[in-house]
What we know:
Blueprint: H1 14-21, E1 22-27, E2 30-33, H2 35-50, E3 57-60, E4 64-66, H3 67-72, H4 75-78, E5 85-88, H5 93-104, E6 114-120, H6 128-134, E7 143-152, E8 165-175, H7 177-197, E9 203-206, H8 213-225, E10 229-234, E11 243-252, H9 254-259, E12 270-277, H10 278-289, H11 298-303
Parallel strand pairs: 3-7
Antiparallel strand pairs: 1-2, 4-6, 5-6, 7-8, 8-12, 9-10, 10-11, 11-12
Helix pairs in contact: 2-10
Amino acid sequence: MDIDTHTTRSPVDDEALLDRLFRPMGVDGVYARTHLYENVVDALQRLISRHRPDDAEVFRFPPVMSLRQVEKAGYLNSFPQLLGCVCCLHGTEADISAAVNKAKHGADWTCETTTADLVLSPAACYPVYPIAAQNGPVSARGLIFDVSADCFRHEPSRDVDRLQSFRMREFVRIGAPAQIATFREQWMRKAEAIARDLRLPYAFDRASDPFFGRVGQLMAANQIEQALKFELLIPVRAGGAPTACMSFNYHREHFGKTWGILDDSGVHAHSGCVAFGIDRLALALFATHGLHLEEWPRRVVDILQLG
Ligand code: ATP
Ligand code: ZN
Ligand code: MG
């Protein structure tokens, strides 16, 4: 894949990104974020809000969601290796004290926990489909949402661009297949314009999700063949392969069927989403333009309204 670089600066190295933008929290892929970094994160969120379609309904989801909903949506089958489950100590005072005492003796107390019926949200759009289903049949105009969540995926890594806890922002479209296709094409063009405005070198590629196991390999091949997922890739790690910073997904009628989202004539609605990896976009900006905002191209600072 060729990336047309509009910048002459060599990318900032990964150690410098980690040192300057994050502080360690004792676990790979989980970091405290500095003020410098969060300013850029906030600016990116505001920039994306300025591109929000007028009729979008806005939801900000908490970092947890219903375990049952995630199971029903098929996430447990497709990506069990990435899912984080919230477990707590239940039972009588004696049960709970016994577990705490285990910890005092250096033993593992967590094996005494049981599910709180919650998971850590693996993607920002999962909770929106059951909400959309509650509103009855989808009109001919379809639906559009602006959602975001702190997401968790169990993929510990020392790579600065592969976090276990990260922010995801999404625009989600629900409607007829042609509406989803148009939405996805428009957003791929808008994403390209945003990357250009931000002077970020980029390329598009077809992609697949990391489906679990051998059956998953077939699902991934199918996803690529049917062009259900595209990614916008930007160099983040110096010397590494470019990183997926946004994705453009077509789910066909998967969520419509799962949640009984129907159109006026009783046909299952289709859906698609455009996902912005907010942390990866912020890292891409620092990797490309350097660690000092005062050295960033004036135009980039203006577009992000950071000046
Ligand atoms: P990758 O191909 O790198 O594993 P993905 O294809 O699994 O990413 P999506 O499921 O499309 O990613 O998630 C939407 C967006 O969330 C991605 O485009 C990316 O910007 C961001 N994202 C996904 N996983 C991570 C992660 N571990 N750390 C930071 N951002 C992430
Ligand atoms: Zn989504
Ligand atoms: Mg991917």
